[in-house]
Design brief:
Largest sheet: 6 strands, parallel
Number of domains: 2
Helix content: 40-55%
Low-confidence stretches: none
Number of helices: 12
Strand order of the largest sheet: 4-3-1-2-9-10
Radius of gyration: 18 Å
Shape: globular
CATH architecture of the largest domain: 3-Layer(aba) Sandwich
Order of helices and strands: EHEHEHHEHEHHEHHEHEHEHE
Number of strands: 10
Mean pLDDT: 94
Structural class: alpha/beta
CATH topology of the largest domain: Rossmann fold
Distance between the termini: 29 Å
Amino acid sequence: MDKRPIGVFDSGVGGLTVLKELIRCLPRERFVYFGDMARTPYGSKSKETVTRYSRQIVRFLLSEDVKAIVVACNTASAMALDTLEKEFDVPLTGVVKPGAKAAADVTKTGHIGLIGTESTITSGIYENYLKDYRPDTRITGKACPLFVSLVEEGLIEDPVTAEIARRYISGFRDTDVDTLIMGCTHFPMIEDTIQRIAGEHIKLVNPASETARSTREMLEEKDILNDTDISLDEEAYRFFVSDSPERFKKIANIFLPQSVSNARQTDVERF
């Protein structure tokens, strides 16, 4: 048993979709979430920059005495996770491998669509994992960079978001793609819009739920799963951001099951 919290980080608010599933899957665990609001989006940045940002965040989370870290960002998972695993002595898990496995399990045609940031699409990491799980898989990728900014601005149900979605996604309707990976943790926040544009015949895959299951398995394997209930008087979920705490709280309170009353701003670049 290990009562220490689990660290979770993302380039902004998108990782809240992963945190929501982690809380559901691991109700006895404590969590420390960091959203890099000052430097979002990560998707247009270089591998070196994303890795540097990720190192700083991992060091910050370790200063909060976390027992494991979930990289709840597809771009950071694709570009930095391998380096982080080599440099830090803490259990880490990302969102890409669990998402690829879920898609391979779901598809019937073997033709899988992938939407994400430019960096995630061009990295080829989803293709690599999908080929491991199902060698006959065909992947059609589409970078959707504006989705991140729209979500960060809180434009969840907005005509602008719907129009951008039509431009990005409508092309999948005329193919034999039957499964579409939402390869960015921001995208499930506009899942209804994406599903409407893609069509009901396409199954959307949200890597968050598979990531939560993968995290539970990792904790069990490392024998650090907590098995005592959270007390009502403790701060079980702590939130930190690099900028815009009020905007973060507004969006967090839309998507998380419990109220977020405080998001502390911290200078992550000092780590």
